[in-house]
Amino acid sequence: MIQILKGGCRTRHPSTFFMSRPEGLMHYVILITKSKGIFHIGDKEYTVAPNHAILVKPQTPYSYSNPEGNYSDDWLHFSITGSIYLKEIQSIANTPFPIDNPESLTFFIQQLLWENSYTQLEEYRNQNIDALFSVLLHHLLSAYKNREQQKKSLPFQNELQSLRLELQNSVTSKHLIKEEAKKLDISESYFQHLYTALFGISFQKDFIRMRVEYAKHLIRTSNLTLEQISEICGYASEVHFYRQFKQIAGITPAIYRNKP
């Protein structure tokens, strides 16, 4: 069973902040760094960059601060009794490691704190906390196992992954390379290079593929006309829609609709 004790998200401290627990605590602590920090965990010292996770075991002496400026993190204190997660937690404890999805971890910590504070029925509260904690832990375990690969990740990888999710959910809108590159403050050619290197397909081809996949979904699951689907998928010209659909699917939208 997981018991959530306390926590916080995007907590900010001034440069004078210094946390010291020479005897450790009687429970576990998860820290997700949002700023640089100097950590002493047991007898080891670590200089930790933003977007790292640290899971501190009970009764482990530790301290941390950021001598160079403000310190910020997400944090969660919790205890475990008879948990199936215990062995996995022990395997990643007391060593900082990089994470590639910090906002997802922030979300799960927020949800855990919400469930712990506001879900009134104890049965549902405990089940929800166990489910959310399981997802949080699996993200941490995955990041720990991939920690060496994370060091080799491409610049702007998190931003490009978020952009790709945005594209998938907004195929009706225009997305221009010029505008997306400007958001990252990089050149258009560098943006295209990074996107292709990360996803194995160019930005333009990927977006066309997303539009066609969405069109295929609408053709299969609705009685909308092809003209309506063309417009919903962001095409100003039905001819253009037909051309790109056939280019990706190998057949026209009309033939696709009549397939058994």
Please supply descriptive tags for the structure shown above.
single chain, 260 residues, alpha+beta, Jelly Rolls, Arc Repressor Mutant, subunit A, 2 domains, 5-stranded antiparallel β-sheet, 4-stranded antiparallel β-sheet, 11 helices, AraC-bd, sequence-specific DNA binding, DNA-binding, HTH_AraC-typ_CS
Can you describe what's shown?
It is built from eleven helices and nine strands. The chain is an alpha+beta fold and 260 residues long. It folds into two domains: 2-150, Sandwich (Jelly Rolls); 157-257, Homeodomain-like (Arc Repressor Mutant, subunit A, Orthogonal Bundle). The strands form two sheets. Strands 1-8-3-6-9 form a five-stranded antiparallel β-sheet. Helix 8 crosses helix 10 (238-249). The mean pLDDT is 93. Keywords: DNA-binding, Transcription, Transcription regulation. InterPro entries: AraC-bd, Homeodomain-like_sf, HTH-like, HTH_AraC, HTH_AraC-typ_CS. Pfam families: AraC_binding, HTH_18. Residues 161-259 form the HTH araC/xylS-type domain.
